Amino acid sequence: MDAIWIAVGAAIGANARYYVGQWIASWLGVSFPGDTLFINLSGSFLIGVIATVMGERILDGPPWRLILIVGFLGGYTTFSSFSFEVVSLLQEDRWLAASAYVVASVVLGVGACLLGITLARSVGGGL
Length: 127
Hints:
This protein folds into two domains: 2-93, no CATH class; 94-127. The protein contains five helices and no strands. It has helices at residues 2-28, 34-57, 62-76, 79-91, 95-123.
């Protein structure tokens, strides 16, 4: 049953990402990735609100956590999870770990993307 809750949330989140992204792009244009920036920032805000409310104010019921955090926000943006994890490390006074995670995620993420591009181009038409 968990997979169904996640799938429902993910379908809604992915569609929200598409339509919100389209709206932002039509408003701001496409010369800068403002749509992705907005998605990442709004997803980070939402995970902060949802995780705090669920963890501090109400019982963290499995279906709601799966639908909203894992499903919806996972489909909307995974940057929200990254942001929440960094904040959690900072709240635990694990500044070095948080800094290493941020730097590693950005540098290695961009590096992995470049590696993927390079690999795809080297293979040429074989993909």
